[in-house]
Amino acid sequence: MDIQHRDGENGTVPFRSSRFFCVGSKWYFTTREGFDSGPFASRQRAETGLKRFLSVVRLLPAEPQLH
Fold first, then answer.
1. For residues 20-35, average pLDDT
2. Pair 21, 10: CB distance under 8 Å
3. Where in the numbering of this chain does the DUF6316 domain appear (predicted)?
């Protein structure tokens, strides 16, 4: 498990669980926002799905600033 600080975190690293889980024989990943994605045929495919999801999220514009 990764126990490194994320950007903006200070102090003790909070508990983190795996983003991946299996229900029956199908794999899913979950996001920090509580979005579950799947099913995938294997954990490896779920990991690839998460990488693709994160690459798309990085392309989204930042939240608009209120004036």
1. 92
2. no
3. 6-57
Q: Give the range of the structural domain holding residue 35, as residue numbers without chain letter.
A: 20-59
For 21-59, give the DSSP string.
EEETTEEEEE-TTS-EEEEESSHHHHHHHHHHHHHHHHH
Q: Are 20 and 49 in contact (CB under 8 A)?
A: no
Report if residue 33 sits inside a domain: yes
Q: Is pLDDT of 27 > 90?
A: yes
- Indicate whether 25 belongs to any domain: yes
**What pairs with residue 28 in β-bridges?**
21
How many domains is the chain built from? 1
